[in-house]
Amino acid sequence: MGMTITEKILAKAAGKACLGPGDNVWVKVDILLTHDVCGPGTIGVFHREFGANARVWNPSGVVIIPDHYIFTADQKAHRNVDTLRSFVKQQGLPYFYDPGTRTYKGVCHVALPEEGHVRPGEVIFGTDSHTCTHGALGAFATGIGNTDAGFILGTGKLLIKVPKTLRFRIEGTIPEYLMAKDIILRIIGDIGFDGASYCAMEFTGEAIRRLSIEERMTICNMAIEAGGKNGIIEPDDKTFAYVQQRSRKPFEAIYGDGNSRVESERVYDAATLEPCVAEPHVPSNYATARSRREVKLDRAYIGSCTGGKLTDFLAAARILRGRKVTIPTFLVPATTEVAEGLIREEIHGKSLVQIFADAGCEDIAPPSCAACLGGPEDTYGRTRSNEAVISTTNRNFPGRMGSKQSRIYLASPLTVAASAVAGHIEDPRDYL
Amino acid sequence: MKTIRGKVYVVRDDIDTDQIIPAQYLNLVPTIPEEYAKLGSYALCGLPDEYPAFVAQGQAKGLYPIIIAGRNFGCGSSREHAPIALGAAGVKAVIAESYARIFFRNAVATGELYPFETPNRLCDNLKTGDEVEIDISASNFKVIGTGAVYPLQELGAVAPVVEAGGIFAYARKSGIIG
Ligand code: SF4
Predict the structure, then answer these.
(1) CB atoms within 10 A of CB B31
(2) Is the CB of residue A150 less than 8 Å from the CB of residue A45?
(3) Distance from CA of A148 to the nearest CA of B (A)
(4) What is the architecture, at CATH level 2, of domain A279-431?
(5) Of B46, B71, B81, the CB nearest to A398
(6) β-pairing, A407-411 with A276-278?
(7) Domain-by-domain residue ranges, chain A?
(8) Which pLDDT tens digit goes with each residue over A32-77?
(9) Which helix (H) or strand (E) holds A140?
(10) How far is CA A368 from CA A131, A234, A334, A418, in A?
(11) ipTM strictly over 0.90?
């Protein structure tokens, strides 16, 4: 019996010729990612368990990208970044993207591939549930807690259960009004918020192959919103072009076998999918955008690991060019590379920065997670009361963007931009 | 016979980690003892306002060693702060219809609490304040007021890990690591 791409990557990392869903195996870890929220606790576990003088298993396997609480006066947040700094120094870690320096990047899941730390066929763990993003480049990647991460720091290994695979085949061409966010929100709406619990979500088909790497990241990023262990897309020429621009390290691309067995397969035709939203308070609360035009909005938000990439801002700018927003519209580029892109990229001779300013958006924030997860009181874009927010982020739980009373509608950057102009939920089709 | 007895706190489906420990408290580091205790005092404070407070204002711990939940408890972020906040607030066990994968694993890895699963939809039958007794070895629990006994799914290999106090303690005890 053949194996899926997820099974084959895990088999290689476990040194086994074959394995299947449900097997518990020790895998060798290529990359451990951590950030300012979970890094200090992970370091605490590492020293408590392996001793004050312990050394990490492989300094170049550890990547530390502070991103959550950066632009805040909160003293503990600063202390936490200091804890990372002294650990990096003590251990001689080469990959640390330090706030306040030229190496600072921003949101870890966009920064990790940008900086060349994601390669096809590798095994990546991160102390953040959206680590599943990196399956977009054909790697096995999943989120873990501090204790497991502390174990990896000391040993470079982790015991994991091989997930079953759910396959999603998206065929056809992608209409200009449809984005990756619409595809993944529809899938989550169909299978439910726990519809992929403990499973790998494999995305395949012609429409997936047509997507850019950034759009593929948007899809894999939200596998966790259906409870998935990992999201994954087989690598292709686009993947190799992206990776080879950013990493010199050799890698071995891994593909599923033709006769691999999956738990279920769903097929979609991209041409029939619609711009949509996820209504409060779970990402599986699917509705088409046009069926929710009566929902009045108080603000719009474009940012985060799933919705703050350059392609997301380019999409929003297509709609905002020559128009005005009617509600406060907050913009947070995920990384410094994205922020530079906003200055560099132009549509009809106008930079994205200029387009957003002319449209009346709020001043663009420096790159970080910002209000995607609420954060400390002084966080840019944080909700304060019962605002209705339309957002390109990935979670609409109660209180996720700050106030428990606020209501969050998740949507693609096109839908968010059209809604920011309309002041209510709007289908972007009429704006393109 | 190992048992856990006490009052239950009842929640419903899809209780995510932002409700268990809201993001503004993630600046606290769980391996620092005072901050571990602080996390406990904020446990479940992100629940919608119709829920009663889990930990009373000014208190370090709650009155409820057992949480009864519906489906998909602990969904959302991978923050280990979530099972830790519950453990620090005095929770010894959660009984849910199902868990999000990372929460279940973190609960076991940290040894903070027993994540029991039950085939019954107890969040409709029990109310906050009811007293129950869990019998870990028999994999069931009894509602003290009515005498009703409900089955729990066997924890299997997970039970000794939680009992030891987490994966590191367990791995040392059983000789997996030095
Ligand atoms: S941008 Fe949001 S979802 Fe992404 S890592 Fe930051 S807090 Fe998490």
Answers:
(1) 19
(2) yes
(3) 7
(4) 2-Layer Sandwich (3.30)
(5) B46
(6) antiparallel
(7) 5-268, 279-431
(8) 999 999 999 999 999 999 999 999 999 999 999 999 999 999 999 9
(9) strand A140-143
(10) 16, 29, 6, 24
(11) yes
* pLDDT digits 0-9 by tens, A101-159: 999 999 999 999 999 999 999 999 999 999 999 999 999 999 999 999 999 999 999 99
CB B118 within 8 A of CB B97: yes
A320, A413 Cβ separation under 8 angstroms: no
Q: How far does CA A207 lie from the centroid of its chain?
A: 20
Share of chain A above pLDDT 70, in %: 100
* A368: nearest Cα among A78, A106, A65: A106
**Where would I find the H helices in A231-358?**
237-246, 310-320, 336-344, 352-358
Give the dihedral sign, CA A176/A407/B64/B134.
negative
Report the C-alpha gap between A353 and A362 in whole angstroms. 11
Q: Which of B66, B168, B34 is nearest to A154 (CA)?
A: B168
| Structural domains in chain B, sorted by start | 3-173 (3.20.19.10)
Token pair 């907050």 is found at A330
Protein residues whose CB sits closer than 6 Å to any atom of ligand 1: A 67-68, 107, 109, 128, 130, 304-305, 369, 372-373, 393-394
- Global pTM reads 0.97
Pick from B25, B29, B81 the residue to mutate for testing the A interface (most A CBs within 10 Å): B29
State the Cα–Cα distance between residues A263 and B87, nearest whole angstrom: 35
**Strands A350-351 and A346-347, sheet pairing:** antiparallel
The reply to whether residue B16 touches residue A397, judged by beta carbons under 8 angstroms, is yes
List the one residue out of A219, A256, A179 whose CA is nearest residue A417: A179
Q: Does domain A5-268 have CATH number 3.30.499.10?
A: yes
